[in-house]
């Protein structure tokens, strides 16, 4: 059985949504790096970055990196329609997943843990790093909105892996509010994905209205 190491309101919500669409049973383990729990130690043993989502596969192997996990599930369970079947559209979807992981998920780690990048820096310097990273995060989402069209969803007629990752990773650091201002159409798309029946049941467990 799959075993998902995750946490409330974290990136693991995207994997929960995907697993539910795949219709496969899985066990959830609540773990987070800052907690001194048995589950957090187990997470670190599986993933030295001690980050969620971390997915243990039925064969015992371990998958980290949310984009890789979503792509793996999309390829393994095509009936879940996580990835477009058209090769050109699928290529853009893979590009989008990697774009979000690299350009929009990574900044969140800097905002949440500035001391990892500026060890021994004073509070003012850390706040400066956070403010600069936040502006870059909003810029990266605006550029995403400009390059990835909704047809009517990012993955086509129904929300797929790219839609799922976008709605989860925009939950933090004021991204939704920034997009309402900078890219209102994209903000509207995110709200449509939030409410879609393929996404809402699991997403709302993490972010109730
Ligand atoms: N590169 C990873 C990033 C995962 C990540 O940053 N997860 C956050 C939760 S949303 C985390 O576990 N943070 C705790 C930490 O970095 O100590 C991915 O793409 O999946």
Describe the SSE topology.
Blueprint: E1 2-6, H1 12-22, E2 26-30, H2 38-46, E3 54-56, E4 62-64, H3 66-76, H4 87-112, H5 123-147, H6 161-169, H7 175-182, H8 184-195, H9 200-206
Helix pairs in contact: 1-3, 1-6, 1-9, 4-5, 4-6, 5-7, 6-8, 7-8
Kindly state the percentage of residues in helix. 55-70%
Order of helices and strands: EHEHEEHHHHHHH
Structural class: alpha+beta
Question: In the residues, how many domains can be counted?
Answer: 2
Describe the structure.
The protein is α+β, with helices and mostly antiparallel strands and 209 residues long. It has two domains: 2-80, Glutaredoxin, CATH 3.40.30; 87-198, Glutathione S-transferase Yfyf (Class Pi), Chain A, domain 2, CATH 1.20.1050. Helix content is 56%, strand content 8%. It has nine helices and four strands; from the N terminus they run E-H-E-H-E-E-H-H-H-H-H-H-H. The chain has helices at 12-22, 38-46, 66-76, 87-112, 123-147, 161-169, 175-182, 184-195, 200-206; strands at residues 2-6, 26-30, 54-56, 62-64. It has a four-stranded mixed β-sheet, sandwiched between helices. A hairpin with a 5-residue loop joins strand 3 and strand 4. Helix 1 (12-22) packs parallel to helix 3, helix 1 packs antiparallel against helix 9 and helix 4 (87-112) runs antiparallel to helix 5. The longest helix is centred in the middle third of the chain and has 26 residues, at 87-112. The protein starts with a strand and ends with a helix. Glutathione (GSH) is lined by residues 10-11, 33, 50-53, 65-66, 101, 105, 109.
